Amino acid sequence: MQMANDKVQLFEDQPIRTAWVEDEEEWYFSIVDVVGILTEQPDIDGARNNWKVLKNRLKDEGSQLVTNCHQLKMRSPKDGKRYNTDVANTEQLLRLIQSIPSKKSGAV
């Protein structure tokens, strides 16, 4: 996948790493960032743990959503280096949000 650029978008003053993939003409969003915001995690490690638990639960349920997620190199908020990060396009992200138990996602 050819990434044209990556940016940080804000949702309720919280950063979400995003990337525009030129080949697909589509935005991708860091799943960990979105999970962290919706579950009100104080740091990236808590968000990462919540995503790990959610990912395992979805796999156990036989959901193809996790299988269809991609990874892109995104800049880490911790050290500024680029690491493979689970990402989702808009459609995948909306489906994923519905699976997150959170007051903000409406899935409580």
UniProtKB/TrEMBL annotation:
The source's domain of life comes to Bacteria
Protein name, please? BRO family, N-terminal domain
Please name the InterPro entries in this protein's record.
Answer: BRO_N_domain
User: What Pfam families does this protein's entry cite?
Assistant: Bro-N (PF02498)
Q: Where is the Bro-N domain?
A: 15-104
